[in-house]
Design brief:
Length: 298
């Protein structure tokens, strides 16, 4: 078998492999590293010994992703302020039509997956999102099939108890709410913000201590509205700030620039027509490749 065939098989499955890594890691840049390392290992494999390329590569990428999670555990512990997943600019807009895939890469689901252990997260993702058999998952995470079944049940129960309803959404409604939110925030319209926010709305900012941001989540519509009006309206008056609407993680999001400098990506979570969560990713490290479109698949 030639190296060309290795590359062809890997390239065909790359969107799937990237999605697996991203959902386990919550980081697009770390997922790129995992895929690069996985390909180097794949290039040494005798293809005659591979019965199922999809299963083999998923197993390889899962192992490398789990290694990356363990390697970054200390960095996560020492992280300053809340840790949020990297925003994902999805290249294929058709991905939004796949409800399971769309939910799996939503910021809300990724934040929820962060509450699982690495093994629980990998098992949940492989089983619930990608539909791998228990024996395939067992080989990927290095545990017995019986243990994997138990882990899958525990992870599913944990997610089901905490996930909010995920139903087909009206993209036009989300876009409209996002635009209303952007207008109210940038003009300092506190009442306008309050009309859009759920009573227990939460603002979570990820800065890694590298830029100014709240070190703890801000909870409650009035506190969030006041914080937003102060952040967006004040900054717009005192700097060359512009805000654009872009789709990240399959939902409309706001991107803030100061001149040509990207300052942050702001994703909003909407339930029953009200904004329940606002996620602000401002750590420059997490914004370095945020403009690179990614293909996802399952």
């Amino acid at each position: 078998m030639t190296t060309d065939e290795h590359a062809e098989r890997f390239t065909l499955l790359r969107p799937l492999l990237f999605t697996i890594a991203y959902e386990i890691l919550g980081s697009a840049t770390e997922s790129d590293d995992v895929l690069q390392d996985s390909y180097l290992r794949w290039a040494q494999v005798d293809l005659a010994s591979v019965r199922d390329t999809r299963s083999y590569l998923a197993r390889l990428v899962t192992r490398q992703a789990l290694n990356a999670v363990r390697a970054s555990a200390r960095r996560r512990e020492d992280y300053i302020g809340p840790w949020l997943p990297e925003p994902l600019l999805v290249e294929d807009t058709d991905a939004a039509a796949d409800l399971v895939l769309a939910e799996s890469v939503s910021m809300a689901m990724l934040v929820l997956l962060e509450t699982l252990s690495p093994d629980e997260r990998a098992v949940f993702v492989l089983r619930e999102v990608f539909g791998f058999d228990y024996d395939e998952i067992a080989a990927a995470v290095g545990k017995s099939i019986m243990t994997v079944r138990q882990v899958a049940h525990r992870a599913r129960s944990h997610v089901d108890a905490r996930r909010k309803r995920f139903e087909p959404v009206d993209t036009a409604e989300i876009t409209q709410i996002t635009q209303q939110f952007m207008t109210a925030a940038t003009t300092g319209d506190v009442q306008g913000l309050l009309s859009l926010l759920a009573p227990d709305a939460t603002w979570t900012a990820d800065s890694g201590g590298k830029v100014t941001a709240a070190r703890r989540p801000v909870v409650g519509a009035e506190k969030v509205a006041a914080a937003l009006a102060n952040i967006f309206h004040t900054r717009r008056r005192t700097s060359d700030t512009r805000i654009e609407t872009v789709t990240f993680n399959n939902t409309p999001a706001m991107v803030a620039y100061n001149g040509d400098h990207l300052e942050g990506v702001f994703l909003i979570e909407i339930l029953d027509g009200k904004i329940t969560n606002i996620y602000a990713i401002r750590n420059p490290d997490k914004l370095a490749t945020v403009a690179v479109p990614r293909q996802i698949s399952r």
